[in-house]
């Protein structure tokens, strides 16, 4: 199972995180609605966030608007597709 890293800033990730699945409140392949999670707080993004936009790669991996961030991350962590 992939390691999940929850960081407020993507700059907190380093080379040791190359194969991780990351939730960041600053950058990423999917975005959560500001109305569902606290801005700048990755733990809120993970726990409360509802996806409002996903790029093509995130869409191909099953992320889509309306799903919860936690639901998508849990599915991706358990997937053998990564």
What would your notes on this structure say?
The protein is an alpha+beta fold and 82 residues long. It contains three helices and four strands, in the order E-E-E-H-E-H-H. The chain has helices at residues 42-48, 56-60, 69-78; strands spanning 4-7, 21-24, 30-32, 51-54. The protein has a two-stranded parallel sheet with strand order 1-2. A two-stranded antiparallel sheet has the order 3-4. The longest helix has 10 residues, at 69-78. The protein starts with a strand and ends with a helix.
**What radius of gyration results from the CA coordinates?**
12 Å
Low-confidence stretches: none
Mean pLDDT: 90
| Category by helix and strand content | alpha+beta
Tally of helical segments: 3
Quote the distance from N terminus to C terminus.
Answer: 10 Å
One letter per element, helices H and strands E, the order comes to EEEHEHH
Count every beta strand, where a strand is a DSSP E run of 2 or more residues.
4
Largest sheet: 2 strands, parallel
Approximately how much helix is present in the residues?
25-40%
Please report which band the strand proportion falls in: under 5%, 5-15%, 15-25%, 25-35%, 35-45% or over 45%.
Answer: 15-25%
What is the count of distinct domains?
A: 1
Shape: globular
User: Can you list the strand order of the major beta sheet?
Assistant: 1-2
Give the topology, please:
Layout: E1 4-7, E2 21-24, E3 30-32, H1 42-48, E4 51-54, H2 56-60, H3 69-78
Brief account:
The chain is an alpha+beta fold and 82 residues long. It is built from 3 helices and 4 strands.
Keywords:
82 residues; alpha+beta; two-stranded antiparallel ribbon
